[in-house]
Amino acid sequence: MKHVFPFSAIVGQDEMKRALILTAIDPSIGGVLVFGDRGTGKSTAVRALAALLPTISAVENCPYNCTGKTPETCPNCMVKLPKSQTKSGKSKAKPANKVVKVPTPVIDLPLGATEDRVVGALDVERALTEGKKVFEPGLLARANRGYLYIDEANLLEDHLVDLLLDVAQSGENLVEREGLSIRHDAKFVLIGSGNPEEGELRPQLLDRFGLSVDVASPTDLDERVEVVKRRDAFDRDPATFIAEWKVQDDALRKKMIAGQKSVSKVTTPDDILRDCAQLCIALGSDGLRGELTLLRTARAHAAFEGRSEITREDILAIATSALRHRLRRDPLDDAGSTTRVERIIADVFAT
Amino acid sequence: MTTPTPWEHAAQALTAFAIDPEALGGIWLRARSGPVRDRFLAALTEALPTQKLSPLADDEQLYGGLDVTATLATLKPVFTTGLITRGGVCVTPMAERIPAELAGRLGAALDSHTLSLVALDEGTEDESLPTALQDRLAIHLDLDALSFRDCPPIDLSNIETARTRLPTIEIPQETIRHITLLAAQMGITSLRAPVHTLRVARALNAIHGDAEIALHWAIRLCLAPRMLTPPPLQEDEQPEDTPPDQQQDNDGKDTNTQHSKTDEDLMLEAAKAILPKDLLASLATLDMKNAASTSGSKSGAKRSGNRRGRRLPSRRGRASSANRIDLLATLHTAAPWQAPRRKARPKDPRRILIEPGDIHIKRTQDVSDRAIIFAVDASGSTALARLAEAKGAIEILLAEAYSRRDHVALISFRGESAELLLPPTRSIVQTKRRLAALPGGGGTPLAAGLKTAYEVLDKAARKGMAPTLVILTDGVANIALDGEAGRGKAGEDALEIAKALRIQNAPIILIDTARRQQPLAKDLSDALTARYVPMPRADARRMAGAVSEALT
After folding, report:
1. Are residues B394 and B514 in the same domain?
2. What residues make up the domain containing B389?
3. Distances (CA, A) of B178 to A9, A296, B138
4. Both B491 and B354 in a single domain?
5. Has A326 been annotated as catalytic?
6. Looking at residue B391, which CATH number applies to its domain?
7. I want to staple A143 with a disulfide (CB 3.0 to 4.6 A). Which of A107, A311, B168, B404 is the partner?
8. A274 vs A263, A349, B46, B507, CA distance in Å?
9. Do the Cβ atoms of B112 and A129 come within 8 Å?
């Protein structure tokens, strides 16, 4: 495997890193949208995340990365039982299903990928050679229980973006084509990145991402120098560089795993709920998606920080990421949405 | 040190690339096809094994796949390998035609350092290599101005030893700092640029054995072509190597250094010690033209973006006169079912059994992308008050254009000529900024305005956009196309160009901004077969309403 730049060695870009970590703690937060200049480490961060994420247990060689606990939902691992046995309400896993530790999948979705490649299609190879009708899982299957990364999401065809967001939300991919009828789990976190100069994402799609992060080239000279130095050190001797950062990466991973375990136990005081609602009202965001994301992200943040209760600091830490893209867009307002959100947050919490 | 010629640049670029192709990513070579480029490529192919990558390459060529013909013939799966899976050095002719999707895939491959790319860009000003790739290719070269006589063959015989030396080359931390600083001062935001510079410096150091010369070249090859603003060094450069008779300059110098002894300036002092003395100064003068053309082509790339009428993957659909059937995809879908269908219908005389569900239709990029081109008469005759009204109306239209994702272009004409303030863009904020800064006054070069509008409209149409022209004028022309004042000739010129515009067959809306309605604007509108919208005493919103009604 190629060497991957360590996550902890990425200089700055704290908001982006935090957003990625929080979705790993609670995937139900939804996708992350990363917009910003070229060469700011968007791709690096996502690829580094792949190496950082804890492993998952999955059935060996299962193209859907299924857990093996509910084989009846996985087209690969279930066994078609004779009718007499299914009546007993039991469905059995294939005897060959061996559960192993695999890395959390982080799948790249290339621009211009066909719908076939994304959702899966008839396996032409086997159809031609064996005359068998077999479903060949697509990228959605491979991304199950992991991440799906689209670089330049703003250039992706609109119908594909729609499809991806739909699947990401329902957590299930349903394929009805070529005489096939397949339903499989596709629970993944969508990460879209792009450069706003090359076209923006359709406003309707924006708020279906959980978090949104703006990245910019660092303006501080020392920070820039540090970026170049580390990149250079990595290029020169990746193995040593990774070894140097292993301690930090391991510590971060440990913290993430602890967060994953404790996130469901984090309690939410009533006044935090009020805070969330107040923020969303002040922003005038439609629907309740804003509140829910705010709450889930704050909870993940609290868990990551080792707290057992959400505090206002958690809300403050993540509110901008969770709300930035939910503003009613005013194309003629020169002030960036970040500033507007920050202003509103300051207003709401000042009272 | 004398300023090296572009061909010496090319030789150094090629040397560095041949030593460490994966790390450098590649070369963006802007040159017309010809003997100069051929000589460059000959040296490249001699030093490195290369493969050709078409700008129209599809996934199968990139990643390999099932060879359907061979598979059907042998009834065993036959796979082809792809360029990206094979890796190595790819040469791409006509790289300016690389569409965004291919650029995305190549970008990912470049990031993983398995592939390197020599992009041969023959683009003229409105076409250029996608910025995603520009950023990832370390070296930017322009060989257009060269003649073959000035280009001796490039000798790459020593690169083997250089490759073995490469891992031992160290670059001091201070130098890294200087390079980063220099890049920032040149207005280069992407941090890939300084990283590339270091890689090139390292490769060249491995062959020259001299860190300073290597760094010098690396800056010329990687940073200079990306420069947006010249580094503020050339002034301070003088005192160090000027003879005492120029000491009178010192007064100015002192104040100069006094008010700016910040941390950064101290860094600059240090940077000067490491960088060759004349380098930055010569960069500042020599490459200004280059820098201008770089930024120009950047906006060009942005403009061309993915708005071409290109092919999209075909989709299942119904055959109708409006759709074009993708025969290959249809056959591809039908192929595996031939045996069972034949079994079911042995009597069917058709040789291939295709069912409606197999049919795939071709799709091309939606042409519904609209470009609204505003041509605004900002002359003195459009009284300033009306200009403000016109601006207001355009702003309202912009908000609408935004919600429909239209592209917007802005042309103003006043004084003696017309100016394209903004080529078609989706950036509404930018348009608004330009619009707000639009000054008024001067003559009315109506013909020039229409001519520019024609050019923009034509270009937009060729890119597969559906352009609409909105002209805001009172129709009173008094500057002819050649810049001469005089109503008669000016009016004639305007009508002449109006004819050419009409042939374009794009919807045109003419908004008459005259205080009192005059026949002039109406005449022009008729010549354009435009929709005529008078703006007498109307408020901006009503006018915008009229336009958006005309648009639908």
Report:
1. yes
2. 370-551
3. 21, 44, 18
4. no
5. no
6. 3.40.50.410
7. A107
8. 20, 11, 70, 53
9. no
Q: Are residues B507 and B535 in the same domain?
A: yes
Question: Which is the catalytic residue, given A47, A224, A289, A312?
Answer: A289
Contact state of A332 with B68 under an 8 Å Cβ cutoff: no
For residues B337 and B419, state if they share a domain: no
**Domain chopping of chain A, boundaries:** 28-55+103-217, 263-350
B453 and B326 in a common domain: no
- Best to test chain A binding among B195, B308, B404 (most A CBs inside 10 Å): B195
Q: Is residue B328 one of the residues assigned to a domain?
A: yes
Q: Kindly state whether residue B389 falls inside one of the protein's structural domains.
A: yes
H or E segment and range at residue A55: none
Q: Residue A224: which of B184, B340, B403 has the nearest Cβ? A: B184
| Contact (CB<8Å) B77/A128 | yes
User: B392-445 pLDDT, tens per residue?
Assistant: 777 777 777 776 677 888 888 888 888 888 888 877 777 777 777 777 778 888
Does residue B349 sit in the same domain as residue B459? no
Task: State whether ipTM is beyond 0.85.
Answer: no
End-to-end Cα distance, chain B: 64
Residues B377 and B354 occupy one common structural domain: no
Q: Per the CB < 8 Å rule, is A39 touching B191?
A: yes
- Let me know if residue B199 belongs to a domain: no
Contact A235, B199 (CB under 8 A): yes
Q: Which residue of B has its CA nearest to A336?
A: B429
Cβ contact (<8 Å) for A39 and B189? Answer: yes
The total number of structural domains in chain B stands at 2
Cβ-based contacts of A223 with chain B (< 8 Å): none
Topology annotation, domain A28-55+103-217: Rossmann fold (3.40.50)
Nearest C-alpha neighbor of A70 from the set A185, A155, A164: A185
Instruction: Let me know if residue B504 belongs to a domain.
Output: yes
Q: Cβ contact (<8 Å) for A115 and B72?
A: no
Partners of A46 on chain B (C-beta within 8 Å) are none
What is the third-level CATH fold of A263-350? Answer: Helicase, Ruva Protein; domain 3 (1.10.8)
Long-range contacts of B156-162 (CB under 8 A, 24+ apart): B156/B14, B156/B15, B156/B18, B156/B43, B156/B46, B156/B47, B158/B207, B159/B15, B159/B18, B159/B19, B159/B47, B159/B207, B162/B15, B162/B19, B162/B203, B162/B206, B162/B207
* Spatial separation of the C-alpha atoms in residues A337 and A326, rounded to whole Å: 9
Q: Which residues of B touch A231 (CB under 8 A)?
A: 191, 195
- Structural domain ending residue among the three candidates B303, B338, B363: B363
Interface test with A, best of B188, B189, B433 (most A CBs within 10 A): B189
Q: What is the pLDDT along chain A (351 residues), one digit of tens a residue?
A: 468 899 999 988 889 999 999 999 998 888 899 988 777 888 888 889 988 888 888 888 788 888 777 777 777 777 654 444 444 444 555 566 778 888 888 888 877 677 778 888 877 767 766 777 788 888 888 888 889 998 888 777 777 878 888 888 888 888 887 677 888 888 888 898 887 766 667 766 777 788 989 888 888 888 889 989 998 889 888 899 999 999 999 999 999 999 999 999 999 999 889 888 888 888 877 778 888 899 999 999 999 999 999 998 899 899 888 888 887 655 445 556 778 888 888 888 876
Identify the CA nearest to A58 among candidates A117, A135, A146: A146
